[in-house]
Amino acid sequence: MLGGSIPTADGDDPGVFWRSRVHPDDVEAYDLASAEQVAGRPTEVEYRLTGVDGVDRWASERTEAAPRLGGGILITGFVRDVSAGRAARDDLAAAEAYLRRILESSGQAVFILDLDTREVVYHAGAWQQIVGNEGIARFFTDPGTVVHPDDHDTFFAAWQALDRMEPWTAEWRVRSPDGAVVQIREVAYPRRTSDGRRLVDGVMVDVTAERVAQSRLNEARDRLARVAESVEEFLFTLVALPDGGYGADYIGPGFHRIVGGSPPDGLDAHTAWAQRLHRDDAPRFLEFLDHVVSESEAQIEVRVVGYDRVVRWTWIRARCRRHGATVLIDGIISDVTERKAAAERLERAARVDHLTGVWSRGHFVDVARGVVAGAGAGLILLDVDHFKRVNDVYGHAVGDAVLVEAVRRLESALHEGESVARWGGEEFAVLVAAVDDNALRDRAEIICAALRATTLAVGSTAVRISVSCGAVLGGGGRSLEELAAVADSALYAAKRRGRDRACLEADLVDEDRVPEAPESIRVAEAMARATAFREGVPEQHCTQVAELASLVATRLGLPPETVLRTRMGGYLHDVGKIAIPDRILSKPGALDDAEWSVMKTHTTIGRDIVLATPGLEIAAPAVTHHHERWAGGGYPDGLVGTTIPIEARIVAAADAWSAMTEDRVYRPGMHPEDAIAELRRSAGSHLDPDVVVAICDVLATFTQEHLAA
């Protein structure tokens, strides 16, 4: 016990030495036991000894006392080392305390119950929080006072199972010490001991928060399901399979709407979807899924042939996510059939004139460009004679009806493969098959005859019309714009020669190529000066634009008549601003949206002015379209690229140069080199790149002062 020998020197008392080794904290208990021994009473005490080797040990001492015959008391006893036992008991107590803390913090309570006596043999954990200390015994002896009345049947059914020695798991509600209702889950396992006792080992868990959270989650899922059911789209999640395919992990409400019915029994949604995909789109859909996995996100449009035999266009957007080795694809599918149909209608509207039903000018240009580049085709421009008089006398409704009927007759005169487009207000372009001037003249004469054949009956109104035609053979390396310019000159030549006739390029004489008299130039110059004065810009602005535009058109090698139209357009490009209110035209700051909408009308107002002024009609394309943009987004018609008349593209560049280099009230003019750099930056977006190259070449040759002279 002392980890060494007791000293045996003379005079040493072993008892005194022993007491000297007792731990100071245990001396009092040791002395009390010694006093009891002296009094002749049995003792039992535990204390610590510090051994000779310096190690503390727990000693358990037990003694008996008996009187001796000769007097005194004989004390017998034994001391044993209980250090290991004490350590084990301490560890057990610590472990049990730790277990109790764990159980209490987790909301769990454990128990051992004698099934026959209903006596709680052992309990630990969160009993206090669940039912309170007093409720522990009542929970098993008088459960009706603890368990919620609505759950009595469940509770007693569980106890009947225990009587049959069957384990069970059940949930019920109880009243907590503070009166709150607590939802608990109980798991119980009955067992029989070796002495025949029936015991139940059980665990109770407070699942109130879990049930509240589950209830809220269920409510959220219900709301999501209702929302998903109410919208046209549906959600899905696919899982990548080991064989490289995909399976359905989740298919939301609305699937039946996309596939036009419910899949047959036993057929999962993903397989049903794969079967309903349009055969031309099925391979693309599989490639799409692989692309989502590799690129994380993608979208696609595919067709689905529904169970109702309706073909629907669907738009799918999907993203990939990974959970460890599991690859999932989350996506949304929308029925875009109506949107696709609307887009097709808009596309058709861009290709077809809404009034007459024939091609629009833009679509005709796209189609005709490649055809007229080669031999065997001709371009005819025709104009309804005196059509303004029809509108003035009978009204625009009758005028529209006349155009529709004229187109019907025109189409009846065309051969297979020939086509017609509305070129302008009452002007049409016809693409015909013709190998030489004789064949072209025949086609033009037949078309003119078809339109003048009989009067046009519009309700009770009978209207007789005629047309003038200008025609040119394709080929020869000329562009569509160049051919259209020649046909336009021939058209005006036909009008000057009495109308109701066809005129070919071969019929033109020199004066036909300069259709406007000098008087028209003077009128244009006068109107330009009035416009500049009204707008408050330098008087030479329109003149500079006209001269620069004329030089650029010449630089591009355009025909003389196109050069003249470009020059006229330069003078008159802003003539429509005469009708813009002063408060907008002279506003010192930026225009708001409403004011800007009014300002943009100057192009169509200018068009109406020049069309109504004899001799100025040829400026209409430039006046109308000089604010269109090469890349689109301009006004008034949003034309793109070469569908914008060439004279308008040239005037736009000349106008931009002049405006940038002029001093204005609100800012100084830009240096010419800076303005040239700005023109080049605008090439391909606002301005025609070829026109920008030409204007920069012109500006490199002629000074700004020369242009203004």
Low-confidence residue ranges? 703-709
Number of strands: 20
Mean pLDDT: 83
Largest sheet: 5 strands, antiparallel
Shape: elongated
Structural class: alpha+beta
Tally of separate helices: 27
What share of the residues lie within helices? 40-55%
Termini, distance in Å?
Answer: 129 Å
Strand content: 15-25%
Order of strands, main sheet, comes to 5-4-8-7-6
CA radius of gyration is 52 Å
Q: Could you provide a short overview of the structure?
A:
With 709 residues, this protein is α+β, with helices and mostly antiparallel strands. It is 45% helix and 21% strand. Helix 18 packs antiparallel against helix 19.
Structure, described:
- The strands form five sheets. A five-stranded antiparallel beta sheet has the order 5-4-8-7-6, sandwiched between helices. It has a five-stranded antiparallel beta sheet with strand order 10-9-13-12-11, sandwiched between helices.
- It starts with 13 loop residues before the first helix and ends with a helix.
- α13 crosses α14 (396-412), α14 (396-412) packs across α15 and α25 runs antiparallel to α26 (689-701).
- It has 27 helices and 20 strands.
- The model is unreliable at 703-709 (pLDDT under 50).
- 29% of the residues are buried.
- It has 709 residues and is α+β, with helices and mostly antiparallel strands.
